[in-house]
């Protein structure tokens, strides 16, 4: 059974959007930057930008690019974290990197920020909190494969 998941797209942060607005001389210029970054002339709002598109604009404006706040950073020496990676692979929440199939940490990041019973970065969770996340992920896998 093949499962599919819609790729997770991280939208631009409010700080990125604010910097773009501050560093463009007027509304028309800002809209042109958005159209350039999105490659879509219908998109003119910074609310339409993804995180990476906003970073492209910031770079072109000579500003520092932002770094994603990843909650999915894990400790490979932590058995619970390795269990989570295994669950992602079982659920087929993977992507190809350099020709290898690896767990898609963007999916995990999205899960931790939206659907997780514990809404905090993986590395900041204690044993009990991580156990709750593992249980929730296992329940998700069961639900996916019961369809």
Outline of the structure:
Helix content is 50%, strand content 5%. By secondary structure, the chain is mainly α.
How would you describe the overall organization of this protein?
With about 150 residues, the protein is mainly alpha-helical. The protein has two domains: about 15-60, no CATH class; about 80-145, no CATH class. About 50% of the residues lie in helices and about 5% in strands. It has six helices and two strands. The chain has a two-stranded antiparallel ribbon. β1 and β2 form a beta hairpin. α1 (about 15-20) runs parallel beside α3, α2 (about 25-40) crosses α3 (about 50-60) and α4 packs parallel to α6 (about 125-145). The chain is elongated, with a radius of gyration of 18 Å. It starts with 13 loop residues before the first helix and ends with a helix. Mean pLDDT is about 90; it is low at about 1-5.
Order of helices and strands: HHHHEEHH
What number of domains?
A: 2
Shape: elongated
What quaternary form is this? single chain
The largest beta-sheet arranges its strands as 1-2
Gyration radius (Cα, Å) is 18 Å
The beta-strand count equals 2
Rounded average pLDDT: 91
| Global structural class | mainly alpha
Biggest sheet: strands, sense, closure? 2 strands, antiparallel
Distance between the termini: 10 Å
User: Which percent range fits the helix content?
Assistant: 40-55%
Which runs of at least 5 residues are low in confidence (pLDDT < 50)?
Answer: 1-5
Beta-strand content estimate: 5-15%
Question: What's the tally of helices?
Answer: 6
